[in-house]
Write a structure and sequence with these properties.
This protein has 142 residues and is an all-alpha fold. The chain has four helices and no strands.
Length: 142
Protein backbone atom coordinates (compact mmCIF):
# COMPACT_ATOMS: atom_id res chain seq x y z
CA UNK A 1 0.00 0.00 0.00
CA UNK A 2 1.18 3.45 -0.76
CA UNK A 3 1.17 6.42 1.58
CA UNK A 4 -1.75 8.01 -0.26
CA UNK A 5 -3.84 4.87 0.12
CA UNK A 6 -3.17 4.67 3.86
CA UNK A 7 -3.96 8.37 4.21
CA UNK A 8 -7.25 7.88 2.33
CA UNK A 9 -8.24 4.91 4.50
CA UNK A 10 -7.47 6.80 7.72
CA UNK A 11 -9.43 9.82 6.49
CA UNK A 12 -12.42 7.62 5.62
CA UNK A 13 -12.37 5.93 9.02
CA UNK A 14 -12.22 9.29 10.78
CA UNK A 15 -15.13 10.57 8.67
CA UNK A 16 -17.23 7.49 9.50
CA UNK A 17 -16.28 7.62 13.18
CA UNK A 18 -17.23 11.30 13.50
CA UNK A 19 -20.56 10.84 11.72
CA UNK A 20 -21.49 7.75 13.71
CA UNK A 21 -20.53 9.38 17.00
CA UNK A 22 -22.67 12.40 16.13
CA UNK A 23 -25.51 10.17 14.93
CA UNK A 24 -25.50 7.81 17.93
CA UNK A 25 -25.73 10.61 20.49
CA UNK A 26 -28.66 12.18 18.63
CA UNK A 27 -30.36 8.85 17.96
CA UNK A 28 -30.12 7.84 21.62
CA UNK A 29 -31.86 11.02 22.73
CA UNK A 30 -34.53 10.65 20.07
CA UNK A 31 -35.18 7.03 21.03
CA UNK A 32 -35.50 8.03 24.70
CA UNK A 33 -37.90 10.81 23.72
CA UNK A 34 -39.90 8.36 21.60
CA UNK A 35 -40.12 5.93 24.53
CA UNK A 36 -41.29 8.64 26.94
CA UNK A 37 -44.07 9.68 24.56
CA UNK A 38 -45.24 6.05 24.15
CA UNK A 39 -45.91 5.64 27.85
CA UNK A 40 -48.90 8.04 28.01
CA UNK A 41 -50.46 6.28 25.01
CA UNK A 42 -50.31 2.90 26.73
CA UNK A 43 -51.55 4.42 29.99
CA UNK A 44 -54.49 6.17 28.29
CA UNK A 45 -55.36 3.01 26.36
CA UNK A 46 -55.36 0.94 29.56
CA UNK A 47 -57.50 3.48 31.39
CA UNK A 48 -59.92 3.60 28.44
CA UNK A 49 -60.30 -0.18 28.40
CA UNK A 50 -60.90 -0.36 32.16
CA UNK A 51 -63.34 2.56 32.16
CA UNK A 52 -65.25 1.72 29.00
CA UNK A 53 -68.57 1.42 30.82
CA UNK A 54 -68.12 4.76 32.60
CA UNK A 55 -66.98 6.53 29.42
CA UNK A 56 -70.06 5.32 27.59
CA UNK A 57 -72.35 6.15 30.50
CA UNK A 58 -71.16 9.79 30.51
CA UNK A 59 -71.08 9.87 26.68
CA UNK A 60 -67.52 11.21 26.44
CA UNK A 61 -66.25 8.80 23.78
CA UNK A 62 -65.33 11.68 21.47
CA UNK A 63 -63.27 13.35 24.20
CA UNK A 64 -61.29 10.13 24.82
CA UNK A 65 -60.87 9.57 21.09
CA UNK A 66 -59.48 13.09 20.58
CA UNK A 67 -57.15 12.67 23.57
CA UNK A 68 -55.88 9.40 22.05
CA UNK A 69 -55.22 11.10 18.70
CA UNK A 70 -53.37 13.96 20.44
CA UNK A 71 -51.14 11.49 22.27
CA UNK A 72 -50.42 9.61 19.04
CA UNK A 73 -49.53 12.90 17.31
CA UNK A 74 -47.11 13.75 20.12
CA UNK A 75 -45.53 10.31 19.76
CA UNK A 76 -45.16 10.43 15.99
CA UNK A 77 -42.99 13.56 16.04
CA UNK A 78 -39.94 11.97 17.77
CA UNK A 79 -40.37 8.86 15.61
CA UNK A 80 -40.25 11.03 12.49
CA UNK A 81 -37.12 12.84 13.69
CA UNK A 82 -35.47 9.51 14.50
CA UNK A 83 -36.23 8.37 10.96
CA UNK A 84 -34.70 11.59 9.61
CA UNK A 85 -31.55 11.06 11.70
CA UNK A 86 -31.24 7.57 10.25
CA UNK A 87 -31.62 8.92 6.72
CA UNK A 88 -29.00 11.58 7.49
CA UNK A 89 -26.48 8.89 8.42
CA UNK A 90 -27.33 6.81 5.36
CA UNK A 91 -26.82 9.80 3.07
CA UNK A 92 -23.43 10.62 4.62
CA UNK A 93 -22.23 7.03 4.30
CA UNK A 94 -23.45 6.81 0.70
CA UNK A 95 -21.52 10.01 -0.07
CA UNK A 96 -18.41 8.41 1.41
CA UNK A 97 -19.04 5.27 -0.63
CA UNK A 98 -19.40 7.30 -3.84
CA UNK A 99 -16.20 9.21 -3.04
CA UNK A 100 -14.24 6.00 -2.51
CA UNK A 101 -15.57 4.44 -5.71
CA UNK A 102 -14.87 7.58 -7.77
CA UNK A 103 -11.37 7.97 -6.38
CA UNK A 104 -10.66 4.28 -7.02
CA UNK A 105 -11.92 4.59 -10.60
CA UNK A 106 -9.83 7.72 -11.11
CA UNK A 107 -6.77 5.95 -9.72
CA UNK A 108 -7.33 3.05 -12.13
CA UNK A 109 -7.60 5.44 -15.05
CA UNK A 110 -4.43 7.30 -14.06
CA UNK A 111 -2.37 4.12 -13.55
CA UNK A 112 0.38 3.56 -16.10
CA UNK A 113 -0.57 1.41 -19.06
CA UNK A 114 -0.26 -2.31 -18.36
CA UNK A 115 -0.39 -2.10 -14.56
CA UNK A 116 -4.10 -2.90 -14.41
CA UNK A 117 -5.80 -5.66 -16.36
CA UNK A 118 -9.54 -4.96 -16.72
CA UNK A 119 -10.12 -8.29 -18.50
CA UNK A 120 -9.04 -10.30 -15.48
CA UNK A 121 -10.95 -13.59 -15.10
CA UNK A 122 -12.62 -14.48 -11.82
CA UNK A 123 -12.35 -17.99 -10.46
CA UNK A 124 -15.49 -19.91 -9.42
CA UNK A 125 -15.00 -19.25 -5.69
CA UNK A 126 -14.92 -15.47 -6.26
CA UNK A 127 -18.03 -15.68 -8.46
CA UNK A 128 -19.91 -17.57 -5.71
CA UNK A 129 -18.90 -14.99 -3.12
CA UNK A 130 -20.11 -12.16 -5.37
CA UNK A 131 -23.45 -13.97 -5.88
CA UNK A 132 -23.84 -14.39 -2.10
CA UNK A 133 -23.10 -10.71 -1.52
CA UNK A 134 -25.65 -9.62 -4.12
CA UNK A 135 -28.27 -11.96 -2.61
CA UNK A 136 -27.71 -10.53 0.87
CA UNK A 137 -27.91 -6.93 -0.36
CA UNK A 138 -31.12 -7.73 -2.26
CA UNK A 139 -32.73 -9.02 0.96
CA UNK A 140 -31.85 -5.80 2.78
CA UNK A 141 -33.66 -3.68 0.20
CA UNK A 142 -36.86 -5.78 0.13
Amino acid sequence: MTTNTVREIITDFLFVHFNQKYYFSSAKKLMRLNDTTKSPIANHFGESIVGTMTIRAFRVEDQFFKKNLDLIDKNSSPFFYGFLANEWLIQRLEMLNATVICSSALAMVLLPKGSFNPGMKLNNETKCQLCEISAVTRHFYI
